[in-house]
Amino acid sequence: MARFWVCVAGAGFFLAFLVLHSRFCGSPVLRNFTFAVSWRTEKSLYRLDVDWPKHPEYFTGTTFCVAVDSLNGLVYIGQRGDNIPKILVFTEDGYFLRAWNYTVDTPHGIFAASTLYEQSIWITDVGSGFFGHTVKKYSSFGDLVQVLGTPGTKGTGLNPLQFDNPAELYVEDTGDIYIVDGDGGLNNRLIKLSQDFMILWLHGENGTGPAKFNIPHSVTLDSAGRVWVADRGNKRIQVFDKDTGEWLGAWNNCFTEEGPSSVRFTPDGKYLIVAQLNLSRLSVVAAPPVGSIGECSVISTIQLADQVLPHLLEVDRKTGAVYVAEIGAKQVQKYVPLNSYVPAFGS
Fold first, then answer.
1. pLDDT 10s digit of each residue in the chain, 347 long?
2. Which of 86, 183, 202, 226 has the fewest other C-beta atoms within 10 Å?
3. How far apart are CA 7 and CA 299, in angstroms?
């Protein structure tokens, strides 16, 4: 299996990596080709972990999403394809553990909710089959625990709650759930649910104004109680108060070429990691202080090769490692923070 890729801008130079992984008679053969060209000055905040995963041959489909159980050191990957396992489980060191496929049709987003009391995996399913248009909760071994939505039927209803191509979700440690519903479907909604699945607040109109969306594709929270939504079609990130749903502002200036497809904060809360799908780019953006949204300010970028297509990403809340699901390259890659710039969680 081949892996290609990474151009990382940083520290006054542009560094491109071409990494080839192949398998011959069960033994890995690694070839590296590296070159540097003077370009621009940026802090280099991450390095590619070229040894993750140990067995990339388990990527047998198109890798759409990735989640990290930081408490237990596990990485969950959702992939699409016929007659393949849809969910792959690796250790944070890159060793393959298991796979499962039960009631998963077409995974789009995935989230690992891990506390001392419960470990669960949530999946947004956009398939047209019996299990599609749902948000589902699983045990870490793939046992179906809860289904939100009307399986196999898309819709706009709120009672009962229906989805159409739900893109992603974020689950707080309290159990509250934030769902962005509408990856090109009937809905363009941000929904907050309580831990017992009651709607707490909702923004649900298609449009370009405040609190309106055009393909809300990713959602995350910061430590100041703000909800950040990648409003991909409108080329912006919108921000809301997590308790009231009040619109707090938007970032437009960083995404004139293409809208954001994925958003996640680093464990220290200093940076927001943003993926742009068709640009094959990751951006490290300075997080605003409490009480202000301000303007988007890019600190560093990771420019991937053409057609790698980073779809969704996740940040390990313990180590700060960034995992990127690439639908073009059909793989997940891991980027490790350089501790001088991004201290690990709790340091």
1. 444 444 444 433 333 333 333 333 333 333 232 333 333 446 789 999 999 999 999 999 999 999 999 999 999 999 999 999 999 999 999 999 999 988 999 999 999 998 888 899 999 999 988 899 999 999 999 999 999 999 999 999 999 999 999 999 999 999 999 999 989 889 999 999 999 999 999 998 999 999 999 999 999 999 999 999 999 999 999 999 999 999 999 999 999 999 999 999 999 999 999 999 999 999 999 999 999 999 999 999 999 999 999 999 999 999 999 999 999 999 999 999 987 444 444 33
2. 202
3. 16
Of 78, 50, 83, 52, nearest in space to 64 by CA: 78
Question: 45-335 architecture in CATH?
Answer: 6 Propeller (2.120)
Residue in 163, 180, 239 with CA at minimum distance from that of residue 214:
180
**What does the block give as tokens for 110?**
């995935």
Distance CA 298, CA 254 (A): 7
Cβ-based burial of 174 (10 A; exposed 0-12, middle 13-18, buried ≥19): exposed
Taking the alpha carbons of 140, 192, 275, 328 in that order, is the dihedral positive or negative? positive
**Rounded-to-integer distance, Cα 201 and Cα 189, Å:** 11
Predicted TM-score of the model (pTM): 0.88
Strand, helix or coil for residue 145 = strand
Which of the 8 DSSP states describes residue 53? S
Closest to 240 in 3D by CA, of 229, 227, 224, 252: 227
Q: Where are the domains of the chain?
A: 45-335
> In b/e form, how buried is each residue of 98-112, taking b as 16+ CB within 10 angstroms?
ebbeebbbbbbbbbb
Phi-psi region of 117 (alpha: psi -120 to 50; beta: other; left: phi over 0): alpha
> Omega before 216 cis (within 30°)?
no
CA 230 – CA 251 distance, rounded (Å): 10
Contacts of 179 (CB under 8 A, 6+ apart): 124, 135, 163, 166, 168, 169, 189, 190, 191, 192, 193, 219
Q: Say how many CA atoms lie within 13 Å of 244 toward its Cβ.
A: 4
